[in-house]
Amino acid sequence: MKSQVCVIGTLSTDVFFKPLLDFTxxxxxxxxxxxxxxxxxxxxxxSQELSILYEAASTSSRQEMFQVLQFPETNRxxxxxxxxxxxxxxxxxxxxxxxxxxxxxxxxxxxxxxxTMVNYFNAKVELLNFKYPEAVATRVNSWVDxxxxxxxxxxxxxxxxRQEKHKSKVNAVRMRYLRNACGETRNDRVSNxxxxxxxxxxxxxxxxxxxxVLRWFGHVERISVNRVTKQIYEDDIKSDAPSLxxxxxxxxxxxxxIPFLQEATSNEPFSVSPEExxxxxxxxxxxxxxxxxxxxxxxTFVKIPYQDPLLYMxxxxxxxxxxxxxxxxxxxxxxxxESMNNFETRPMEILLPRFVVESSVELVPILxxxxxxxxxxxxSELTNMSPDGDLTIGSVRQKARLEVNEEGSTAGVAAAGSFxxxxxxxxxxxxxxxxxxxxxxxxxxxxxxxxxxxxxxQ
Length: 458
Hints:
Layout: E1 3-11, H1 18-34, E2 39-42, H2 43-56, H3 59-69, H4 75-88, E3 94-104, H5 111-121, E4 124-128, H6 133-147, H7 158-182, H8 192-199, H9 206-220, H10 225-238, E5 244-253, E6 266-273, E7 276-294, E8 299-305, E9 311-318, H11 324-329, E10 344-353, E11 355-362, H12 364-369, E12 391-404, H13 410-416, H14 421-424, E13 428-431, E14 436-442, E15 450-454
Parallel strand pairs: 1-5, 1-12, 3-4, 10-13
Antiparallel strand pairs: 2-15, 3-5, 6-7, 7-8, 7-10, 8-9, 9-14, 11-12, 14-15
Helix pairs in contact: 2-5, 6-7, 7-8, 7-9, 7-10
């Protein structure tokens, strides 16, 4: 019986390698195309999910992931080393991440997969009864809420769990009938890919595939489509397809090395578009910051460091005559662009809007568009996760929230407050008063924690 894995990511070196960075940048650009507002992608969390799915995938799906992401055989060792090293560098800032597999009691996981999750991903397995979607949703949300320090309260609801379970059952019934019919010609267990190819079935959606199955069985068994439909849905009602939710959560809180002055925050104009301007709380700080100006991208980049010496936020502010979409399309060349490798330290003042970015996105369609098609198709099998190959990936959902404000240590605030407005007015000024992009990452790590776009500060 075929079931679906629901993958959930939350957030409230070269790290992996350049192909993974390129892939996540493409994912972020696709999200921005579909949603024109404020956008946030927890890149580290997505990298975590992809690494786990690579461990679970069948040979064919792994080959696809290797072609797209160039995952090496030592992927698990790289992941463990990178994230352990990353966590060890967070002293003043807080970084908590977790992986948990919420599994229906009817699902049997491979022992090797269990060991890999524990040894390399520090993941725990929790057994639940998926016959009660409300209880499943409550438990998953409770875990996420606790790990993210109550920043993310809800990521699934009982209706969503029930919907994913129903799609799982439809897929299970479809493939079971196909296998039974084809089993007469082959004694060994046939794969989804072989069945679909031999039957000449086409269609990507559940509805299209289901209609193809019905037509095919009506022809082979010389029975009416109505009879097959009735039989399928009778079995669907009786069946209780097992389910699994792979949840990843990450919590980050960093304090600025040079805190913004709370008493200096004031309402300033922000140009959402050439036709619209709004007043937003704008923070102020003065000090020595690293800055780079790109004539190629027509963008100014500034590094705003956190208290941890290797951690910082990069704000990318396009020139006033440069649309944000142009800079977004050029994101892939950021790491190799001359401006990103030639920062200079300069005394300056920064005016940055105070903002909160929240994002909730279903990633499966976007991941398919960016190259991972087989992994999320009905022909995919997670044979390294379950010995029967009865799990497919139904959903990859990520919910993230990031708040940027003036907060810093008490001593730091006092030191920053010693600058006078008269001195500050003589310095180079960077006023972020129009849509911008930002990245949060660590020195020497090419895969960031967050990628974000702010169009309308809130």
